[in-house]
Task: structure prediction
Amino acid sequence: MFKHLIILILLSVLVVLFMPYAQQGLQAVITAHDWINEMLMQVFSGGQAGNITRQLIALLAIPVIAGLIPALIFWMVKRRWFPYFMDFVWVTWLLQTSALVILYKAAEMSVS
Result:
């Protein structure tokens, strides 16, 4: 418990110190998500089912791709599967989803 608290404090300090870089990283993730979403518009129809499928694939593509990169590097070095693949995917998904929700909320408030 104490070890987790120390890690949480250290990570919080790092986030505060490197906030501009964290913002650039989140902006890159959002830009990649938007690019994938636009590319998928050419594939899926404009109906409700097509929109849901396109948004779902766009939401899942970035975390899976981001998780595959360290997994492939780990596999090339150790010749076994990356043990924290799903943890990495979940963390990336949570960060991406949080940024998308914040952007959605900000866009909704600016329209109102």
About this structure: Residues 19-111 form one domain.
